[in-house]
Structures are given as structure tokens and as C-alpha cells.
Amino acid sequence: MKHLLSTLDLSRSDALAILDTAEQMAAVGQREVKKLPALRGRTVVNLFFEDSTRTRTSFEAAAKRLSADVINFSAKGSSVSKGESLKDTAQTLAAMGADAVVIRHGASGAPARLAGSGWIDAAVLNAGDGTHEHPTQALLDAFTMRRHRAALAGVPSTGTDLAGLKVAIVGDILHSRVARSNLWLLKTLGAEVTLVAPPTLLPFGADSWPCTISYDLDEALAAGPDVVMMLRIQAERMHSAFFPSVQEYSRRWGFGDERLARLDALGLPHTILMHPGPMNRGLEISSAAADSPRSTVLEQVSNGVAVRMASLYLLLSGESGPRTAQETAS
Ligand code: CP
């Protein structure tokens, strides 16, 4: 694999190799010296045309923990504002010796264009493109789900898969690259996915996707999901009204205090509550839910560093499978 563009490109063994390698990288994160020399002499460019907190900082932390040099580029304040194209921007940064380009772009397909254009020779990692895909988010989400499943079963995460895991993905599916990447990856790993949304926030053609569709969050909760993943309402991508009011959306599709209490009443003590961030507290999720013991929001952020270390390591070191952290360090 030369690039990481879409979870659709990942076979089950590719995905498990990344998750297993991420376990080893997470172990490095527990050490006093959280650094490996694996990518010493390599350069990773973070090329962000859209805002980001988690993805950009965790790719930077991941590259630095692997001893790579990191160049951070943000379109804001750059020559993009003078009209410089994606091609010229990418080639300029590649001329500084980039081995990997991590790109976030508002246009769906921009990372694939960069990877397939021949403009640059570096590995391309998609850090979120338009409403299309966000593969490392899906991988860190799968990593988080797998750890919870393994802990519940009292077995190691490595080697555990997600077969039969019931996952409800709730909210603004229409604009969500996180939902798409998660759906394809979870399907590959054997999970059963239900998308829950108002009809206006489901994309045309979603009825042919490999999942169940529900318009009723309470019905989806009554089905006993192992995981409830709440999605952010992406107001910046909404150019018309998709629901009557914030109050109406929150009441019908938000995860509030009442639904948090209902998980106990439904006999679901182990159901976890995920959110990729950033959260609209009080809209798709209440503060009580976001900060509850069921919430994995900050755990997802920590796991993101390990998963991005694994992705960079596997793409740049030429390894087809995981090695132990000890082997990597030697
Ligand atoms: N989850 C996610 O992509 O967050 P950022 O936009 O902060 O990177």
C-alpha cells in the first residue's frame, strides 16, 4: 500500500495490521521516552486546507514520536490566498523533501488527485476530504471499539475483531466523511451498522449501503447497540435548512440526559458513546453524556496518535505487517 486514501481500499488483513501495529505504538506512548527512531531522516508534511484541532496535532505528534521531521502547512496565511493551486502548493512542499503528505481539503477527492497525479512522489494520507472520507478517524474509532470489546471479554485487543458488534451511527450522515469511512471499515471488520438520521440528513443512495437505516433514535437504542457514535451537525456545510429547529433536532436525534439514563433502563451497561469531535454540546450531545463514564471522546483522541503512528510507519518504513515496538527501536 503506497497511500491511505479510503477505508474502502483496506482489506481485512490491511486493517488488522494497522490496528495491531497501533497497539504496539500505544505501548510506546506509555513509556517514559515516547519516541522511536523508526522514521529518522524522513519528512512528513501536514497540508491542511481546512481547520483541524485533533487530526493535525495528532499527525504531528505521531510523526515526531517516530522521529520524522514535520512541516506544518495551513492554507490560512499561505500563498493559497494569492491563488496558488493545489498542484503548485504540493510541489513546493515536496521540493523540500517530503516523504509523506497528510492532506485535509474541502474538496472530496483532493487526496486521490494528489496521489494519482504524478505531481509528487510522496505517500499521501487522507486527513479528511469534503464529505468523502476520513480514514484515520475510522481506524482510531475501530481501535477504540476493539479495545472496549477485548476488555469486556478479558482478552487482548490484538487479534480481536469486530464481528457482530452492533454500531449505531447517529446524526448528520449526509455531510459526514467520518460516517462513510466508518461504515466501509466496520463492514470489512464484520460489524453490523445502523445509520440513524432524519431523512433530510441521509445521502441519496444510502439505502443501497451495507447497513440498516433508521429514522428513530429510540428504536435504534432499543435494539441494544454496543456502540453509539454521535456525529457533529456540520453547520458550515449546510446551505439550507435540514431540520425545523435546533430544539427539534436535539429532542429527536440528540443524545441527551434522558437517553443517557435510558441506556441503564434498557440493560445496556457496556454500551459506549463515541463522538469524533469537535462536539456541539447541547445539540447532538449533552454535556452530561459527553462527560459520562460511557463517553470515549478523549480516549479516541489518545488512540488517534497511536493509529496515525501506525499508518505513517507502515507506509513509510515499507513494512507490510507489524513488528514489535522493541524490534522497531533496535
Ligand atoms: N475528528 C476530527 O477530524 O477533528 P478535527 O477536525 O479537530 O481534526
Considering the chains and any ligands shown, give keywords for the structure.
9 strands, five-stranded parallel sheet, disordered C terminus, 2 domains, alpha/beta, 330 residues, 12 helices, binds phosphoric acid mono(formamide)ester, four-stranded parallel sheet, Rossmann fold, 14% strand
Give a written overview of the molecule.
The protein is of the alpha/beta class and 330 residues long. The protein has two domains: 157 residues, Rossmann fold (3-Layer(aba) Sandwich); 162 residues, Aspartate/ornithine carbamoyltransferase (Rossmann fold, 3-Layer(aba) Sandwich), CATH 3.40.50. A five-stranded parallel β-sheet has the order 7-6-5-8-9. Strands 2-1-3-4 form a four-stranded parallel β-sheet, with helices on both faces. The longest helix has 20 residues. The two termini are 24 Å apart. The C terminus is likely disordered. The structure holds phosphoric acid mono(formamide)ester (CP). Phosphoric acid mono(formamide)ester (CP) binds next to helix 2. Phosphoric acid mono(formamide)ester binds next to helix 2.
Principal-axes shape call = globular
CATH superfamily of the largest domain: Aspartate/ornithine carbamoyltransferase
Given this structure, which CATH class of the largest domain is correct? Alpha Beta
Number of strands: 9
Query: Are there runs of 5+ residues with pLDDT below 50, and where?
Result: 320-330
